[in-house]
What we know:
This protein is of the alpha+beta class. The protein folds into two domains: about 5-150, Jelly Rolls, CATH 2.60.120; about 155-235, Arc Repressor Mutant, subunit A. Helix content is about 40%, strand content about 25%. Strand 9 and strand 10 form a beta hairpin. The longest helix has 27 residues, at about 125-155. It is globular. The relative contact order is 0.12.
Amino acid sequence: MFRRMTRELRERVKLLSLVSIFESLSWEELEILDGQLTKVHCEKGEYLYTPADRIEKLYMLQKGRVREYKVIDDRELTLMVLETGMVFGELALTRQEVREVYAQAMEPSEVAVMSRDQLEVLMLEKPEVGVKVAHALSERLRWYESRLEDVTLKDVPARLASLIVALIESEGVVSTHNQIKIPTRYTHRELGTVIGVKREAVTRAFAQLQDAGAVELRRRQIFVVDVEILRRLARCSNAS
Length: 240
């Protein structure tokens, strides 16, 4: 079946296979599923949904980066930066309203969209998909709780250290001299929207983390010099 696919279909199915909740599906099952999903391409800055939309769909990021954020007191607070293979919008499927949430592409992105009805049918046919969705929902809630704890209990350097630790776990790669490089180049403003502060506060926090020997910044890219120091600072309420 795989060999008879066109090149375009093969690429679409390959992208679908990267989505975490579909790991247990065969190539044949993914090909059938691909024909049932709505495909959306977003350029950088475009929105998949806003607070004005009624969300009863599951979104699967097949390529690119998307962020979910809220606006609080005229300031943006990023809830999560989504990477390839992640699902989002799943909170709306719990039949609880998720208000004031925006989903915006951070770079050109490819997204597959599944309706609630389609997901329910798939979970009845493939219970393992339902288990994966439950795990994704649990991980998302845990992430939100962690971010809320950081914003309310930690000072800015500790929040930034905690965020960088999370980035290591999600996308960090080993670089030269045993340092860990975060591949994505985040602006200070983007990082600030995640930890709930302005760009200038992020700049000051980076200076403190660098002085402590935890990280280095090179051409807007983060290099972790000492993971243990970084983790210790992330646990503190005062990272001075």
